[in-house]
Amino acid sequence: MDLNEKFGWSNSNSIVSKSYTCGYCGNSLVSNVGYSGFGFNSNRPSFIYICHFCTRPTYFDPEGEQIPGKAYGNDVNEISEKGIQTLFQEARNATSANCYTAAILCCRKLLMHIAVSKGAKVGASFADYVEYLSNNNFVPPDAKIWVDHIRKKGNEANHEIVIMSPEDAKELIDFCEMLLKIIYEYPASIQKKYLQPKNDLDNK
User: Rounded to 10 degrees, what is the CA torsion of 116, 121, 127, 129?
Assistant: First the structure.
């Protein structure tokens, strides 16, 4: 879906205002534009709100559940590899649809991609990749307690008949976010802020 494309919604109305975070573009807003209606077996209304920023619709059921929900976690900037960026966003988006086992499987694949991008051998096991990231200091020393936990949860989601919880998925996304910031965002930020661009050095 192209978030640059805007929509004009026919017959939208002014409805009761609601604050929420858009599950499509991630902006926080207060909207009073959209639609309301009642289910055939309910006397409580449901609402569809239109985002001011991306113009996508968000549904709220009578209990207030948001669909699509807010993607868990935070954006990570300066990820140079498109596949890694895509997998991280897929994992976050899966949580917005309450697909927590799918989110964990995306994170599992994401960690494998990160390890290979940093020199691990293609075709190794998931446990080997997580261990590689730890042994090569991509995981901070005080965070290495995460390694066994992440390895265990990733293997449970992939090999065992078990449904992962929201907490399991959010922990794994937090771990991936930390790694991506350490590997990509923070070095790029320091490079831009403190180190002289290569072109300037070449001109001296």
Answer: -30
Range of the domain at 61: 13-67
171: part of which helix (H) or strand (E)? helix 166-180
Residue range 103-147, pLDDT digits in tens: 988 888 998 999 999 999 999 988 888 889 889 988 888 777 777
- Look up the pTM and report it: 0.75
Roughly how many angstroms between the first and final C-alpha of the chain, as a whole number? 46
In the Cβ-directed half-sphere of 142, how many Cα atoms lie within 13 Å?
1
Q: Under DSSP, is residue 38 helix (H, G, I), strand (E, B) or coil? A: strand
109 and 21, same structural domain?
no
Which two structure tokens, joined as six digits, stand for 62? 């009578």
